[in-house]
Specification:
Strand order of the largest sheet: 10-9-11-12-18-17-14
CATH architecture of the largest domain: 3-Layer(aba) Sandwich
Distance between the termini: 90 Å
Number of helices: 7
Number of domains: 2
Structural class: alpha/beta
CATH class of the largest domain: Alpha Beta
Low-confidence stretches: 1-28
Shape: elongated
Number of strands: 18
CATH topology of the largest domain: Rossmann fold
Radius of gyration: 27 Å
Strand content: 35-45%
Length: 330
């Protein structure tokens, strides 16, 4: 009799536990949360905006809790009341203060988020997202290396010059196309936003650099075309070249419309030359790299909006640093 009673009580307990689990599944099982952002790379000491999107098959009242964890330590946290609509997505915009860090150091971090019903501490949905935190200066502690590169800048629009000056990037100024032809060492940079056809002789000046073994980097030309001698090796890439050079960086979301450039590159080739044309829109290449023989320079034309998006997030300026780190001679 006692054994039967114990068995009945045990069965009753199991039924109650199962009913509790079933009720939790019914109430919260279909609730989900997603951490939405275009930026996996963020600046230290600034505010990053995150959108937490909550979906539920029913009206849901509760709270959102989030925290940012760096090196196992919670550096920022918060919570907000949540009222989610049925059969839809409810977006909660949260500005998050990113902590400061030592210049020259990049740290991985994780954003955690969860939602719970009103009156309960039990999370019914959770999510996490990995991010990287960068300092403002990708060249911290490397000014001597930068000076040794011998950067020479041709920048009619002056926007690249302003970005370099603000970050203390050393360079010599090239006043005109003829001065490009006279560069005998270092690296030539054609500043962002140049209308290529507005500078007669630019292609010839770049060809002179190639013959002398001086590498040339052309940043996001606004329009026009550039005719180069047919290269020994031609490499074309889309925006994914950013993560190829540094997988911590974002290859989308630099500009307000979510793009990484305002124009892209198209090519025409014949037996003796390759012409690179800057065109509006996204139906082209982001990267064209022309390689020549031993002892000659290399030409990279990059349509990504490095300078236009310089302040938006770390990826443009850190990608520029990766460009300068590339081996530029065979």
């Amino acid at each position: 009799m006692v054994a039967m009673l114990g068995a009945a009580l045990g069965a009753d307990v199991r039924i109650n536990v199962m009913m509790g689990l079933l009720l939790a599944a019914v109430l919260g099982g279909d609730v989900s949360i997603e951490i939405q952002t275009d930026h996996n790379a963020v600046f230290a000491r600034k505010i990053a905006n995150y959108i937490f999107a909550v979906r539920s098959p029913r009206r849901f009242e509760g709270r959102l809790t989030w925290k940012l964890v760096v090196s196992g330590r919670t550096v920022s946290r918060g919570e907000k009341a949540l009222s989610a609509v049925a059969d839809g997505s409810t977006a909660i915009d949260v500005p998050v203060a990113i902590p400061m860090l030592t210049e020259g150091v990049a740290l991985p971090a994780t954003m955690f988020a969860s939602v719970a019903e009103s009156g309960s501490d039990e999370a019914v949905a959770s999510a996490e997202r990995s991010i990287w935190i960068f300092g403002d200066d990708p060249f911290a502690g490397r000014r001597e290396w930068l000076r040794d590169l011998g950067l020479a800048l041709f920048d009619p629009s002056r926007t690249t010059r302003e970005a370099f000056d603000a970050l203390g990037i050393p360079y010599s100024r090239l006043a005109d196309v003829r001065s490009i032809s006279r560069v005998a060492a270092g690296r030539v940079i054609v500043g962002e936003g140049v209308a290529l056809d507005a500078h007669p002789g630019l292609a010839s000046a770049i060809d002179d650099c190639v013959e002398r073994g001086v590498p040339v980097l052309v940043l996001a030309p606004r329009s026009g075309s550039l005719a180069l001698p047919r290269p020994d090796d031609l490499r074309l890439r889309g925006p994914g070249v950013v993560s190829d050079l540094d997988d911590r960086l974002d290859s989308v979301g630099w500009l307000p419309d979510g793009a990484t450039s305002s124009s892209t590159l198209r090519l025409r080739s014949d037996e003796t030359s390759t012409t690179i044309e800057a065109t509006p829109g996204a139906r082209g290449w982001a990267w064209c790299e022309a390689r020549y023989g031993a002892g000659k320079g290399r030409v990279i034309v990059c349509s990504l909006a490095l300078i236009e998006a310089w302040e938006s997030e770390p990826s443009p300026r850190y990608f520029f640093a990766r460009l300068l780190e590339m081996k530029v001679k065979p």
